[in-house]
Amino acid sequence: MLVCDCNEVTFDMIKAAVAKHGGNIDAIKDETSAGTVCECCLEEDCEKVDLALPLAVKKALEEL
Ligand code: FES
Q: For residue range 2-24, what is the model confidence (pLDDT) as tens digits?
């Protein structure tokens, strides 16, 4: 499941980062580079990705 198109970041990568950093979006961005190029995936309604970063973090927190 794609979370950031620019940097090809998947949900599994976000989940691993959330396991380390919790809901700290800045730390997750630093670790995965998600959301650091066009920033579309920082918006919940971004159409370039399957699951935008804020929603992916939320889902990961629920699953962990
Ligand atoms: S889609 Fe994530 S920075 Fe462009």
A: 999 999 999 999 999 999 999 99
Domain with residue 36: its CATH number is 1.10.10.1100
Best mutation site among 38, 44, 51, 57 for ligand 1 pocket (most ligand atoms within 8 Å of CB): 38
What's the pTM? 0.96
Among the listed residues 47, 51, 45, the one whose alpha carbon sits nearest the alpha carbon of residue 63: 51
User: Closest Cα to residue 24, out of 54, 1, 49?
Assistant: 54
